[in-house]
Each structure stands twice: as structure tokens, then as C-alpha cells.
Amino acid sequence: MGYPELAAGDAKKACLLLEHALEYEENSVGMKVRVAFDTFLQFEVEDEGKERMEPGQWVFHVKDCLTDLLRNTYRVLLKAVEFTLDPWEALHICQGAKIRFPDDEFFPQEFRVYKAQFEKARQTTREEGHEGAEANRQLIQGRVYLRQYPFMPLGYLRRSETLIRSLERELTAVSPKCKLARISGSNNPDVFSGPSDVLGVFASSDIAVGDCLFVDTTVVGATNTLLTPDEVICEACCGTISPGGQETVSAECCSAVYCAKQCQTGASISYHKVLCGKDFRWLSEAAKTANHVNHPGLDGLVWLRVLSVCVQGNCHPLEHPLLARLTPQYQSKTVDRWSYEWNVDIPIRILRQLGIDVWADHRFDTWVLLTVWARLINNRNVKMHHERPVYGVNPLFSFFNHSCEPNATWKSSTGTSTGGTTVEITATRAVRQEEQIFISYCGGGADGQGLNKDQRQEILMPWLGEECSCSRCQRETLQKSTRMSTFPSS
After folding, report:
1. Could you report the per-residue pLDDT of 181-235, keeping only the tens digit for each?
2. Of 439, 469, 485, which residue is a domain's last?
3. Domain that holds residue 284
4. Within a domain: residue 452?
5. How much is the pLDDT for 289?
6. What CA–CA distance (Å, rounded) separates 63 from 38?
7. Cα(295)–Cα(480) distance, rounded to whole angstroms?
8. CA–CA separation, 313 vs 4, rounded Å?
9. Rg of the chain's alpha carbons, rounded to an integer?
10. Which range among 289-293, 352-356, 444-448 has the greatest average pLDDT?
11. Which residues contact residue 352 at a Cβ distance below 8 angstroms, ignoring those fewer than 6 apart?
């Protein structure tokens, strides 16, 4: 079907099942698989009229069959990862398969092929002038098209009327100056007709320049605390707690620290209960080199928070209120960065440690996780604070649409902590009642004001999927067209 990322996820789960079956521990998943496979082979013998084996021979026969099946599953996994253009991960998978199947010539041969591909990619990266962290990121990540899968239930393709009404009430409760309203268009115009589910933030009353519209907090956030060990960092909002400031709030159950009671309460009701008492230091250690916002190691920390929120909420991830509101960007013509380790292996490992049966609980199928990921990267709020990256997805901030001439701006809130995921949105000019409020998705200068149109379009393409058509871009396009028309023809 052309979905190598899904094939990689399913093959990984199959490999895990078969590896557990070969270990055959009492009262384990592997024991159940072994018993089921044993029964299947017995039926096969009876159907084909083969002579039954002695018990001792039968045990070895079952083991050999499981080993052959695991070998073939590794080959499927390799092929899937190959199609994600990820030779680095293919090398690692081959290395593991060589150890497990030392007499099989297939994996050493494939290892040599992938090594040659990786060396060629390394040379290309050097020739293109990429160095340091950027070069490493280019080399160790694959590429896939994140897209809407054709078998997705319709209810996951569009915000429901009930959800939209709930979101309207949620914004009104935190900001008397703002309201949510529909704008023209649809997130799935080829699938749905009727009222638009595309939302924007509008002024519910006149707003003066400098007015704070609202402060938006979130529990969907992550940061690499190992980069700044001298800082005291709030577990919930990922902000630095100022030394000598107000006293920190400690969790009653463990050593977690928060900058305020609000953060402690938010963590407790959202994700902390399923995390408490579980050792995820392996994940922090794996992400210890995550020193910029696009580092794949940061992705693992994001997965930990998001999956913890979903598990504690005990619902389908795409039905969780914090994720159901988000929309992906599937119209972009560019491929998305993807890693077998961080987008397949790590999420599965996290879910299993959180007590989820990744084989039986289809709420966490690979297509669900990748759909969640597409929504996260389209709505993320990322920045560097001191030397550490901070990643957040804010529940209301995500509804602001873009303009290259914004009438509002945002910054990290400096309340009980600094540099965290909490954002404060402020009007940069007077906004009339019923006027839509825009922010800029661009960096550079003041909200991208120092960037020309081509520079802005390059930044905006992953979010918009097409050229920006705001008033500034239209004006600059017209000005350029006018200048071109004044050139004398040859």
C-alpha cells in the first residue's frame, strides 16, 4: 500500500512477539505465542497427514519454525526501513540480525550495502556544506510523507460540533477579549461538506495595543534537563524556577518539583500518576545530546509526555481533548523527517513500560501514533532557553492563524518560572471587535518583519502547505509584478 512507516511498526511488534516466544518465560507474552504457534503447527501436521514427532523432536521443530519466522520478519523490517530512506537505522537492524542469525549470509550482505549507502550519504552531506549537528541530523534520519491514511474512521478526520462548542467555551473562560469562530475552508474538503471546521481567534471586544489576551499553559511539553543540571526545572511546564524566588512545590509521591501549585495539579490530573514510580532514566540518557529543537532525542521526551497523557486519560489518543483539537498539515509537498528509533521503537518501548499491551490494544496502533505525531509537529511551539530546547503544544495558542502582518505576538510567560511552555499572547496594535487576531509563524526580526517574502515562504511551507496569501504577501507580490512590468522588453 506504500506505507513503509506502518510496515516498520508492524514488523517491529512481530519481531518482539517472536523473540519473546523463543525466550519462552513462564506467564509471559512469549509463552502465549509459543502455545498458539505450537497448536497451529499440530493442526498443520494433521491436515497434511504427516507423521507425528517425538516430544523432544517436536520442541526443536517448534523452535526452528519460530526462528525461521523471526528471520523473515527481520527481512521485512529491513525492507520497510529501507523505503523510509534511513540507512543508519538499517545498519543497526542488520547488526542485531547478524548476531542473532550468525549463519545467515543475507544480513552481512545487506549490512555492506547499507554501509555503502550511508558512506555515500555522508559524502553528499559534506559536499552540500552541512557540518556538526545539522550534518548528523541529515545522516541519522529518514524521510516519509506523513499523510491521511485511507482507512481512518471519518470521526478522526474532522473536529466534531460537540468538540468545537467545548473549545469555544474553553477560550471564553480564560479570555473575555477573545472568542473562537469558524473561517472559510475545511481541514478535509475532499471528504466533508457543510460547515467549516477551520477555526480562528477573533476579538470579542475592542482590544488596545499592549493588552494581554490570555496566558496559555500546557501539560504537553518536554525539555532536556541534563543540559542544564544547575537549573531547577518544573516537571510540568519545563520552565526554569528562579533561584531565590517563590518556594517550589514538591510532589507528594516522589521527588518531582513544580514551579506552582497549578503545575502540580495539572500534572497530577493529566499524566503524573501513570509515570510515578517508573524508571524512565533510560529515555533521558538516550536524549542527553538533544541540544536543539529538531534533535531526534527530544522526540523521545515528547513521546513520553504525550503517551502518558493518553494512558492516564484512558481513551483513544485521537479522542483525547488535547489531541482531538489539533489538525495536521497533509498538504505540504515536502517530506517529513522520520526515525525508526524515535518514531517506532521508542514509542513502543514507552507504551509497554506504561502497561499497554501494544499487540492487543489497537488504540495505539502505528497509524494512530503517526497521526498523533503529524498533529504535534504542525502545532508545536519550540524554542531554545539558555542551552536547552523546549517543546510544547499549547491547547489554545494553536488556534491562532498566521499573518506576515500580525496584530498580536507571543512570548514565554515569566510568572513562576521562565523559558517554559507557558505562553503569553499580547496585542501589538489596536484590534477592533470581530477582527481576527493573527500571530506570525516566522522567526527573525520582530515576528519575521526582517525577512523578505521568499524567506518567509520557506519557513511557512511546512505549516501552510502552500504560499501564504496574507495582505503583506499579496502586496509584495503585486509590487514585484509591477517592477517587473516596468523593465524594458528586449
Report:
1. 998 755 554 544 556 778 999 999 999 999 999 999 999 999 988 877 888 899 9
2. 439
3. 151-439
4. no
5. 81
6. 9
7. 37
8. 30
9. 26
10. 352-356
11. 358
Summarize the confidence of residues 278-307 as an average pLDDT: 88
Tens-place pLDDT, residues 420-435: 999 999 999 999 999 9
375 vs 41, more confident? 375
Q: Beta partners for 435?
A: none
Position 189, amino acid? P
Q: Are residues 253 and 324 in the same domain?
A: yes
At residue 97's C-alpha, the angle toward residues 296 and 45, to 5°, is 125
The CA distance from 87 to 113, in Å, is 9
In angstroms, the CA 75 to CA 142 distance is 18
Convert the pLDDT of each residue in 61-97 to its tens digit.
888 999 999 999 999 999 999 999 888 899 999 999 9
- Please, are residues 66 and 18 in contact by the beta-carbon 8 Å criterion? yes
pLDDT given at position 26: 65
Positive/negative CA dihedral, 225, 418, 268, 295: negative
- Are the CB atoms for 211 and 177 separated by under 8 Å? yes
Contact 153, 147 (CB under 8 A): no
CB 262 within 8 A of CB 270: no
pLDDT (tens digit per residue) in 138-151: 677 788 888 889 99
Measured CA to CA, the distance from residue 222 to residue 224 in angstroms comes to: 7
pLDDT band at 333 (very low <50, low <70, confident <90, very high): low
CA angle (390 as vertex; 385, 395 as ends), nearest 5: 125
Helix (H) and strand (E) counts in the chain: 17, 14
257 shares its domain with 179: yes
Residue 232 DSSP symbol:
-
Tell me how far apart the 2 most distant CA atoms of the chain are, in Å. Answer: 94
Domain co-membership, 74 together with 178:
no
Residue 67, in any domain of the structure: yes
Which residues have a Cβ under 8 Å from the Cβ of 318 and sit 6 or more positions away? 156, 324, 368, 371, 372
Q: Using CB atoms within 10 Å of the CB of residue 482, give its burial: 0 to 12 exposed, 13 to 18 middle, 19+ buried.
A: exposed
Same domain, 167 and 136: no
